[in-house]
Automatic annotation (TrEMBL):
Keywords: ANK repeat, Membrane, Transmembrane, Transmembrane helix. The chain crosses the membrane at residues 354-376, 388-406, 412-435. It comes from Gossypium darwinii. InterPro entries: Ankyrin_rpt, Ankyrin_rpt-contain_sf, PGG_dom. ANK repeats lie at residues 69-101, 103-124. Residues 293-401 form the PGG domain. This is PGG domain-containing protein.
């Protein structure tokens, strides 16, 4: 009967699957005890979506089981590019994206090796933390794409690493001390080297002079390839030029050549630029968030939303209230010049100094809470829509402050126009994002130049 179950999973025969369960309601439980494989491995391999749904709904524990080769169903589906299967499997929890299989590989590693670009995007969006997972040999997903010569998948990973502000991954070493730049140089992958250190690089802060356990920098690797009598390609000239422009040197020059040390001290502007590029406050904050537990992140989100709500409400209902229409003729305020208070303006605005202090501290709390929300939701799906919502709420906050405060109409118009331009720009970004999701507009960044 177990063989018939596996055959039904392979063919996607739901009727046969139901018949087998009617004959033996404990069939799936017995398979879990008696076989290394489970039917979910088979349906994931065959790309049978409907029967995968049935099996997951009845036996979700199957999604976390490894077969005799050390792979779970999501590993199998990722390697074979079955993105719908992956989405069904992730319904049991995004944590299965971090499930370690043979050689310490997570599903993203399997997709990266095979160059499954759509799967790579899906897994990174579902679980950005998978970008930081390494194999038993210390290899990230980017290492594996480069070693497997999957150029397009490598481009996508670099774009996602940049989007998520995880640039430090680009300098991570495997157990032999090799970075992505070492491997791409050894494979003479000028496209990837260009993405890392070229004139139109997507990456930032890549260390071109990292030394591996053999004492070789990427430039040493290139020189060895050229000196060992291997064929010379015109791309090698381009790679050599990129290394020169990036300041690449040989391993022995880093510690023994005084000219190298002198060059570093005589070019402070370049060092400052590289430092500014690699050191990023937003990245450091995101790293702090990533290192915290899920419970801590949830608590921070609750606090941030509460602060945003309270500070926003304080603007809508200031402590002193608002001037009413029937008092309009009798109230005047002396600031720089004497003027009449208008209905809708805050009573507190009659004392500009107190009003300014109140608005400043309120705005600090409001914008700081929005920044916390942005940090905590980084990498979430529908990120473009969330940005648009936050910007819209910010615009209404600013307009409310201007309307209730002692501000001249000309200043109101200037601020409203500026907020309108920001809102329009974010609306365009959101529309483009939607069009890309719907497949109406292609992602030009993903094309090789």
């Amino acid at each position: 009967m177990e063989s018939r179950l596996f055959e039904a999973a392979r063919c996607g025969d739901i009727s046969a699957f139901h018949s087998l369960l009617e004959e033996d309601p404990f069939l799936l439980d017995r398979v879990a005890l008696n076989s290394v494989y489970n039917p979910l491995h088979v349906s994931a391999l065959a790309g049978q979506v409907e029967i995968t749904k049935e099996i997951v709904s009845r036996k979700p524990a199957f999604t976390r089981e490894l077969n005799e080769n050390g792979f779970s169903p999501i590993h199998v589906a990722s390697a074979n590019g079955h993105i719908e299967i992956i989405r069904e499997l992730m319904r049991v929890g995004y944590d299965i994206c971090l499930l370690k299989g043979k050689d310490g590989k997570v599903p993203l590693h399997c997709a990266a090796i095979k160059g499954r670009v759509d799967v790579v995007k899906e897994l990174v969006w579902a679980c950005p933390e998978s970008l930081k997972q390494v194999t038993a040999c210390g290899e990230t997903a980017l290492h594996l794409t480069v070693k497997s010569n999957q150029i397009e998948a490598a481009r996508v990973l670099i774009e996602e690493i940049r989007r998520l502000q995880m640039m430090e991954i680009l300098n991570w070493k495997d157990t032999e001390g090799n970075t992505v730049l070492h491997h791409s140089t050894f494979n003479r992958q000028h496209e990837i080297i260009g993405l890392l250190i070229g004139g139109e690089a997507l990456a930032c802060g890549v260390n071109v002079n990292t030394v591996n356990t053999s004492g070789f920098t990427p430039k040493d690797v290139l020189d060895l390839l050229l000196q060992n009598g291997s064929d010379f390609y015109h791309h090698d000239i381009h790679i050599y030029q990129m290394f020169q422009q990036a300041g690449a040197v040989k391993g022995r020059e880093i510690t023994t050549d005084p000219a190298y040390v002198r060059t570093q001290t005589e070019n402070p502007n370049r060092q400052i630029a590289q430092s500014a590029c690699s050191w990023n406050l937003w990245k450091e904050l995101m790293r702090e968030v990533a290192e915290s537990s899920t419970d801590t992140q949830n608590a921070l989100m609750v606090v941030a939303v509460l602060i945003a709500t309270v500070t926003y409400q304080a603007v809508l209902s200031p402590p002193s209230g608002f001037w009413e229409a029937d008092k309009r003729k009798s109230q005047t305020v002396t600031t720089v010049q004497k003027r009449t208070m208008n209905p809708g303006e805050a009573v507190m605005a009659s004392d500009p100094e107190i009003f300014a202090v109140f608005i400043v501290f309120n705005a600090i709390g409001f914008f700081a809470s929005l920044a916390m929300i942005s940090l905590l939701t980084s990498g979430f799906p529908l990120r473009a829509g969330l940005r648009l919502a936050i910007l819209s709420m910010t615009a209404t906050y600013v307009i409310a402050v201007i309307y209730m405060g002692p501000t001249k109409m000309r200043e109101v118009y200037i601020v409203v126009i500026l907020m309108g331009l920001l809102f329009l720009a974010e609306s365009i970004r959101f529309t483009v994002w939607l069009l890309k999701k719907w497949g109406i507009v292609g992602d030009t960044r993903s094309r090789l130049r």
